[in-house]
What does this fold into?
Amino acid sequence: MIIESFPVGPLGCNCSILACEDTKEAVIIDPGDEADKITSVLEKYDLKVKYLLHTHAHFDHISAATPLKRAGHGEILLHKDDKFLYDILEEQGRWFNMQIPKGDPIDKNFVHNDEIEFGKHQISVLHTPGHTPGSCCFCVKEKDLLFSGDTLFAGSIGRTDLPGGDMGQIEDSIKTHIMSMDTDYKIITGHGESTTLSNEMKRNQFLRSWA
It folds into this structure.
């Protein structure tokens, strides 16, 4: 499997491209900005994008979805509970004094436990509300790899003070769907450095207090 992760945009959202080496079919997780930078990686490997997957609908994780879709790079997928945030992308930009264009319509909604296929591989969807109502993590079981979005960071968790955030929900999501995992997943977070589940269980003050 081809796996490329790199920061995009002024807030450094970690965008990830996963692809099947045999079929060249790909998915992009959190194309938050810099569509040209993302496209250059696609061209490097000669990839065909099937889906644009989003851990949640904050602008820094989704702003490049529309230009990529218009260029023929896949369908936009999101959990339905974050549609209200996707519908106000322009307003979100104003919260941070940035100009964000309105997005094209969502093509499909995924739900908890969906299996999203690309080439010979699959991604499992975990609905983990708290940072936003529709926040999700994506699990690639064959690679012991978890894309946590802004639900879990190295040493911290996602903020819950923006519209739709809920501290009780994020605690329940992490305890139920992440801390209960029996594999030491490598975790690619929404921002900043990658980590592992074992590291977070030992060092993350939130997870330690919930254990």
The chain is about 25% helix and 30% strand. The helical segments are 35-45, 65-70, 83-86, 89-95, 167-178, 197-203, 205-210. The mean pLDDT is 96. Residues 167-178 form the longest helix (12 residues).
